[in-house]
Amino acid sequence: MEREEAKLKHLLFCCAILSLLILTGCWDQTELEERAYVVVLGLDKHEKENHVAVTFQIANPQVGSSARGDEAAEPPSDVVTIVASDVSAAKEQAMSIVTRRMSFSHLQTLIVSEELARSDLNHHVISSLIIDPEVRHSMNFIVSKEKAKAFIEANKPRLETRPHKYFQYMRERWRDVGFVPEANLNRYFQRLGGELFLAAYATTDKTDDEPHNEGYLAGEVPQQGGDPAQISGSAVFKYGKMIGTLSGSETRIALFLREKAFVSNALENFDDPLNEQFMLTARILEVDDPEVEIELEKDPIEIDVEVTVRLQLMSDLSLTDYSTDLKNQATLQQSLQEQMEKKTLETIKKTQEEFEAEPFLWHLIVRRKYLTWEEFNNSDWLDKYKDANVNVTYNAEIANFGEQTKPAKLRKGKDERT
User: Is residue 7 classed exposed, middle or buried when 0-12, 13-18 and 19+ CB atoms within 10 A define those classes?
Assistant: First the structure.
């Protein structure tokens, strides 16, 4: 009996192995060189009603890799534009041009032209895009001042030939500086109820106009040489439609005031309180999570915000002795706090008057004050916010004054050279 059971187990094992050999195969395998990997997707409004011009930037997998034997003089990417009713239709029509099977599995960047972003068609196109199972909801969301097709074609970085790597590295720089929000499709869909969504703002179209502050908007950076594209500031969306822009410094302030504050090693320019002719630069070493108190019972409601930052003095063009003079240090600390409070209140006022909504995610704090979603929706938070009294306090701790010596001064007197 035991022998028969052993034979049966052996037979079942052999059948299992045989079935694996029969069922296993590579009939659906596609080689790397047989696929066209779209790494950047551009969307433009077309003159034909409810149609978009879809631009695909397709990466060349051989450029920048170890497989360079057959590369010859191939370009790092190819750009194809198709006019269609939606992205899926454009992708299908592109098959008549592109020799390889198109794939969105490596698509990481979405670029929408400002013209399309400001239209009612924008949300319809983006909402239909995520139906494609290959589309990542974590892809970068960028708004270009010019047409997306023009931006993609003009953006040819000198130090990074692979387009997907360029945007990957730029995203890391955004975290360092804070002039650009980390925007993706997930955050876009989370903030369709009237809250402001901030997308990265970019352009290759430079302007000679005077910038409205030091935290430049894309196109305002006084640049000579370097890459053609500038990415700075943010495009402001409300109910899925672009309604305005925030400069780089205004975007950074919006990130400071969120519950999970933006923390980085960024630099900020300030007026020198002891010499109006010069400015000084301080490094923002750390930003604590802000303390936000919202009193909904008052009319108008009152919002008190307290932000603690730690700074390091990085430059002192006036050569004022801040490193050893305690009186000067106290004056500097008070001035930095007042300047940050002023800039922050100006940004808040802009969101109240121009956008009538907030990008600081304070609605998440308000939501926790209600038991049900219905109660929150009936609270008219947006109407209350635009008329709210907002008080902002900064606690600016100067952790380091740089070299702990007095600034070097020019010595006036006779020439001692012999």
Answer: exposed
pTM greater than the 0.85 cutoff:
no
Residue 44 sits at the vertex; the CA angle it makes with 40 and 49, to the nearest 5 degrees, is 145
Q: Which of 131, 124, 235 is nearest to 180 (CA)?
A: 235
Paired with 209 in beta bridges are none
Rounded to an integer, what distance in angstroms lies between the CA atom of residue 215 and that of residue 218? Answer: 10
Give me Rg for the CA atoms of the chain.
28
Cβ-Cβ contacts under 8 Å for 297 (sequence gap 6 or more): none
Residue 36 burial (CB count, 10 A): 20
Q: What is the pLDDT of residue 397?
A: 85
**Tokens 């924008």 sit on residue:** 122
User: For the range 16-25, what are the long-range contacts, defined as Cβ-Cβ under 8 Å and sequence gap of 24 or more?
Assistant: none
Query: What string of H, E and C letters represents the secondary structure of the chain?
Result: CHHHHHHHHHHHHHHHHHHHHHHCCCCCCCCHHHEEEEEEEEEEECCCCCCEEEEEEEECCCCCCCCCCCCCCCCCEEEEEEEECCHHHHHHHHCCCCCCEEECCCCCEEEEEHHHHCCCHHHHHHHHHCCCCCCCCCCEEEEECCCHHHHHHHCCCCCCCCHHHHHHHHHHHHHHHCCCCCCEHHHHHHCCCCCCEEEEEEECCCCCCCCCCCCCCCCCCCCCCCCCCEEEEEEEEECCEEEEEECHHHHHHHHHCCCCCCCCCEEEEEECCCCCCCEEEEEEEEECCCEEEEECCCCCCEEEEEEEEEEEEEEECCCCCCCCCHHHHHHHHHHHHHHHHHHHHHHHHHHHHHHCCCCCCHHHHHHCCCCCHHHHHCCCHHHHHHCCEEEEEEEEEEEECCCCCCCCCCCCCCCCCC
Residue from 265, 229, 261 nearest 394 by CA: 261
Residues of the chain with pLDDT under 70: 1-34, 61-76, 159, 161, 208-215, 262-265, 402-418
Nearest CA-CA partner of 400 in 282, 318, 245, 290: 282
